[in-house]
């Protein structure tokens, strides 16, 4: 229920960036426990006059595979001119293994090692985490763990914990949440995020999966010196990305809050 795409559409056809007229490199990363992660690396020309020296690490929701996210990748890459790195969690797309909280955190650590220690262009750019739903929980983990390497955090419709989300989605299970082994306790990690990291929260107020109050609580817990929460009053869990002003909010936030490394 938590990782549905690992069972069905996540293993179907996985579109590639060149199908959207975007050059890319296929990167396969081996994790510390021996799994292989399928990654798409999209870099701007670092010698181009308009090079922004900013990189977006996209952290996907629990449905679909990274091919389904390419229209969003296209906005960051083609419209905004940022580098983009996106990968399939273990058990999704062409990545090996089975998804779990422990495993996805191992995956995140491996990706961050690559971006901050192994690839020169990414290493020298400002890193923006963009996480939607489950991807928001992964982004919170990265921000709390790799804070000195993170320059901004964008969260859309993410949760305080799985245990606090289950009763909202499946009311019949509200008395057995103690048996939910995938905790994703973001509530305890959010206060650990460095105050120096600017944060943008994008909240659907008619979210039928994650109660909007989760995003409100995350906002309260954040110690960031620069935090913003934007509410989409008529938006549901999966259509927030299509709301008017969504992309303007993101673009303005990155332009205003994220300076290129070295500037």
Automatic annotation (TrEMBL):
- SUPFAM superfamilies listed in its UniProt record: alpha/beta-Hydrolases
Q: Report the InterPro entries cross-referenced here.
A: AB_hydrolase_fold, Hydrolase_4
What sequence ranges are listed for the domain Serine aminopeptidase S33? 80-184
Pfam families in UniProt? Hydrolase_4 (PF12146)
Organism in which the protein naturally occurs: Candida maltosa (strain Xu316)
Q: Which cellular component, as a GO term, is one annotated location?
A: membrane
Domain of life from the UniProt record: Eukaryota
Q: Which PANTHER family match?
A: ALPHA/BETA HYDROLASE DOMAIN-CONTAINING PROTEIN, PROTEIN ABHD13
* Gene3D superfamilies, A to Z: alpha/beta hydrolase
What is the name listed in the Swiss-Prot or TrEMBL entry for this protein? Answer: Serine aminopeptidase S33 domain-containing protein
One of the entry's Gene Ontology molecular-function terms is:
palmitoyl-(protein) hydrolase activity
């Amino acid at each position: 229920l938590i990782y549905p795409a690992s069972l069905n559409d996540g293993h179907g056809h996985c579109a590639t960036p060149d199908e959207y007229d975007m050059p890319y490199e296929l990167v396969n990363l081996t994790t510390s426990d021996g799994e292989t992660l399928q990654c798409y690396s999209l870099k701007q020309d670092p010698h181009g006059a308009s090079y922004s020296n900013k990189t977006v690490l996209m952290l996907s929701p629990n449905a679909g595979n990274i091919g389904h996210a390419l229209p969003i990748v296209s906005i960051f890459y083609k419209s905004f001119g940022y580098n983009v790195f996106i990968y399939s969690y273990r058990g999704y797309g062409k990545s090996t293994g089975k998804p779990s909280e422990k495993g996805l955190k191992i995956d995140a650590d491996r990706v961050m090692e690559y971006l901050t220690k192994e690839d020169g262009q990414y290493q020298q750019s400002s890193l923006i985490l963009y996480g939607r739903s489950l991807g928001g929980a992964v982004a919170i983990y990265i921000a709390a763990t790799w804070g000195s390497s993170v320059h901004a955090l964008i969260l859309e419709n993410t949760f305080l914990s799985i245990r606090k989300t289950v009763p909202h989605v499946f009311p019949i299970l509200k008395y057995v949440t103690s048996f939910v082994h995938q905790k994703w306790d973001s509530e305890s990690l959010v206060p650990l995020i460095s105050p120096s990291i600017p944060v943008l929260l994008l909240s659907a107020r008619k979210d039928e999966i994650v109660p909007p109050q989760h995003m409100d609580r995350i906002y309260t817990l954040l110690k960031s010196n620069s935090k913003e929460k934007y509410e989409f009053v008529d938006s549901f869990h999966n259509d927030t990305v299509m709301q008017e002003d969504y992309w303007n909010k993101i673009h303005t936030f990155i332009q205003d809050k994220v300076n290129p490394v070295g500037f």
